[in-house]
Amino acid sequence: MIGSNRNIRQGKCEFADSFGVKHTMIWTVGLAKGGCDKKSLIRKTDIWLLRILVDEQLCVWFESGAWNCRPPLLGIARDAYKMVMALYS
User: What distance lies between CA 57 and its chain's CA centroid?
Assistant: First the structure.
C-alpha cells in the first residue's frame, strides 16, 4: 500500500524567470513500486506524492490520491511543476 512505499526522491535547484529574477525550487516526489491503487496516482504517471515549494512557498501538493494544492494555470509555479513532471514521468 502507499504507506509502506519508501521510494521518495528529493531535489533542489535554482532557476531564473523571464525577467532574470532567481528562484529556489525544492521538490519531493514519491514513486510507486507496483502495489499502488491507480486512483492514488497522478494521471498517467507512477507518482503518488508530489510537493513543490518555490521560494519557500508551497505551490503544488498531491498526496494519497488528492490534490491539496493544484498547480496554477500560469506563472513560475506552473513552470516548476512542468520541470518536475518531465524528470519523473
Answer: 13
How many angstroms separate the CA atoms of 33 and 1, rounded?
10
Q: Closest Cα partner for 37 from 1, 7, 62, 63?
A: 1
Q: What is the pLDDT of residues 50-73, one digit of tens each?
A: 999 999 999 999 988 889 999 888
Cell of 46: 507512477
Quick count: other Cβ atoms within 10 Å of Cβ 5?
16
Three-state SS annotation for 8-39: EEEEEEEEECCCCCEEEEEEEEEECCCCCCHH
Q: How confident is the model at residue 35 (pLDDT cuts 50, 70, 90)?
A: low
Helix/strand/coil percentages in the chain, nearest 5 = 20, 45, 35
